[in-house]
Amino acid sequence: MKKSIFTFLIFLILSCNSKEDESNVLGDCVVPAKPDVICTKDYKPVCACNDIVYSNSCEAEKAGNLKWKSTEKDSGETCSF
Q1: Which end of the chain is more exposed for a tag (fewer CB within 10 A), N or C?
Q2: What is the pTM of this model?
Q3: What is the distance, to the nearest Å, from the Cα of residue 77 to the centroid of all Cα atoms in its chain?
């Protein structure tokens, strides 16, 4: 009996955590920005899912983008993800 109660409690905790993650999603690919993330200055421009070009994937993720792809455009330009 104790084992099944413990299993049920673990299941509840895990399902609550997944709902929190879903509530942070602002769209299909954007979450709240992470201003405390430190990125390198490597210049490998990416087009993020918010249609803005960032200098590298770390900067795109720091801005809250979950998806991005390489591009030849300059950072700050608009792009079509």
Answers
A1: N
A2: 0.64
A3: 20
Q: How many domains does the chain have?
A: 1
Q: Where are the alpha helices (DSSP H) in 24-64?
A: 57-62
CA neighbor of 52 nearest in space, from 30, 21, 27: 30
53, β-bridge pairs: 47
Evaluate whether residue 16 is within a structural domain.
Answer: yes
CB atoms within 10 A of CB 54: 24
Per residue in 25-44, pLDDT (tens digit) is: 456 788 899 999 999 999 99
First to last CA, the chain: 52
Could you tell me the CA-to-CA distances from 59 to 42, 54, 80 in Å, in that order? 10, 6, 18
